[in-house]
């Protein structure tokens, strides 16, 4: 009975302590100007308060960090948005992960877990372990709550240490694609380009996270919140060597089913086969080889394509563009568009917004192609 009373007293103090903290004190605790007296979760206002240059689009915005957050140096800030980027649904602070901090990952995870916990405990009371939903994934984390936010400190030995911050009334439970018509995202222009718009960008940085970063983009596009660090954990991604894609797809099969997604292979790389999915608003996951010669074609098209007076003129310019077959640099990216007139596909790499759309001739793409896969509702 005494232990029960002490537990009850501890939990009561926890909620009262957390509930009484001021907005200013909470911002001071974090070292970031996240909270405000009103409209805390308005994305435009939060972006202005933070004063940090964010990159990204459509549901996910991020910034590289090298500053202390809750007393520990963080490497990245990610803000997830909803309601056409008007509202913030979650903030994630990354302290350590095996991709960005490979030499001292385990020690940095331990230090982040200890120091962040001590700092937040001092302001919000002792944490308790709690389940937390990240899209279709349930995780365990140290949990605190005040009157205007919930805090989840998630650590995975050898993988990552992250602090998630959500509104108090953030919805819990399984996400679903629903009945949305993704063909509404398809755009066409007079040049003959057919392109899927509104695909979130996830920048994998310098680590070998092309598979988890690309899959995060697909999940986010369909409205399913899943980050590349959890996907890298699920798929056994090595930060230097990358991911065994077949294993990754096997491991996320249960996640995609819970999210209401199916999958299909495309047997051949052709405009007709690609168009069948692009026209319905479904991006194509492309396993290929990212060669130095291919990067040269990307650059050539980026410099010159917009200057062509017509699709036929550009098609003539592409006649002299070609590359040798190669198995250099296994990579995964997205095909998000096509052009029948010029016989091109639009490629989107997880390397930042500058690489969101790059056009290459189909004959070039075939020289580096491995496998094509579509995830769809």
Query: How much helical structure, as a percent, in the residues?
Result: 25-40%
Q: Report, as a whole number of angstroms, the end-to-end distance.
A: 53 Å
- Derived from helix and strand composition plus strand pairing, the structural class reads alpha+beta
**Tally of contiguous helical segments:** 12
Computed Rg:
23 Å
Strand/helix succession? HHHEEEEHEEEEEEHHHHEHEHHEEEHE
Tally the beta strands.
16
In round numbers, the mean pLDDT is 87
The biggest beta sheet is recorded as: 8 strands, antiparallel
The neighbouring-strand order within the major sheet is 1-2-3-4-8-7-6-5
The fraction of residues assigned to DSSP E strands is: 25-35%
Oligomer: single chain
Low-confidence stretches: 1-16
Overall, the morphology is elongated
Please outline the helices and strands.
Blueprint (H helix, E strand, L loop, with lengths): L1 H19 L2 H8 L12 H8 L4 E3 L2 E10 L2 E11 L4 E11 L7 H20 L3 E7 L2 E10 L2 E8 L3 E7 L19 E3 L4 E4 L13 H12 L6 H8 L9 H7 L1 H6 L3 E5 L4 H8 L5 E6 L2 H13 L6 H7 L12 E10 L4 E5 L9 E4 H7 E8 L1
Antiparallel strand pairs: 1-2, 2-3, 3-4, 4-8, 5-6, 6-7, 7-8, 9-10, 10-13, 11-16, 12-13, 12-16, 13-14, 14-15
Description:
The protein is an alpha+beta fold and 377 residues long. 33% of the residues lie in helices and 30% in strands. The protein contains 12 helices and 16 strands. The chain has helices at 2-20, 23-30, 43-50, 105-124, 210-221, 228-235, 245-251, 253-258, 271-278, 292-304, 311-317, 362-368, and strands spanning 55-57, 60-69, 72-82, 87-97, 128-134, 137-146, 149-156, 160-166, 186-188, 193-196, 262-266, 284-289, 330-339, 344-348, 358-361, 369-376. An 8-stranded antiparallel β-sheet has the order 1-2-3-4-8-7-6-5. Strands 9, 10, 11, 12, 13, 14, 15 and 16 form an 8-stranded antiparallel β-sheet that branches. Strand 13 (330-339) and strand 14 (344-348) form a beta hairpin. Helix 5 packs across helix 6 and helix 6 packs across helix 7. The longest helix is centred in the first third of the chain and has 20 residues, at 105-124. The protein is elongated.
